[in-house]
Amino acid sequence: MKKIAIILFLCLAATVSWAQKAGTVLPSGASHKGFFTQQEIPDDVFRRMQGKSFAKGCTTKRSDLRYLRLLHCNMNGDTQVGEMVCHRTIAAALIDIFRALYESGYRIERMVLIDDYDADDERSMSANNTSCFNFRFMTGSRTRVSLHGRGLAVDINPRYNPYINKKGKVSPINGKAYAYNRTSSTLGNVKDVIIRRGDICHRLFLKHGFVWGGAWKSLKDYQHFERIEN
Ligand SMILES: [Zn+2]
Question: Ligand 1 centroid vs 52 CA: distance in angstroms?
Fold first, then answer.
């Protein structure tokens, strides 16, 4: 009898943790307990990151990173479990921002670690995945680490808020339709997640000291918010 009880308990525990995996849609009215929290990078998360976002030669210390458990409204308006790795200095700000976005019903399609896409930025962006930490050096440099590489920059709904480089190349490729056509009424419910100056997403990040890549002149990075000063 005791054995059966233990097995049942283990099954239940497994079901609960599975049900709360990032990407899971929660039933309406589900408890928010355990979300909007930060912790040092747990071993199981670090195993997912190693050789991917935490690449070989990573100069950012594991102890400087934090793992966030979040909730967000997906494109259907359902509550979905999200996760993020960021620098410890912006963890509290991100929790405040994503809680406010969630409570306002702001839609974010997906929020899982970029490691689920083998830390491939194009694949993660194409899947419209919102993410933060991904160690890499800046283009053309072997010593300067990008702000994503330090966990100090966040990309929001990247497919609908693409990056346009100085030559006009759009990333991700499937975001092309949203690179220049950013006000049209033909955008349907996507128009609600097109980041614009003064909207709730822009206001929240700026309130917490972030800079928006959509305001840059030489290139446009509509998905991108970064905070350098700590
Ligand atoms: Zn970015």
Answer: 17
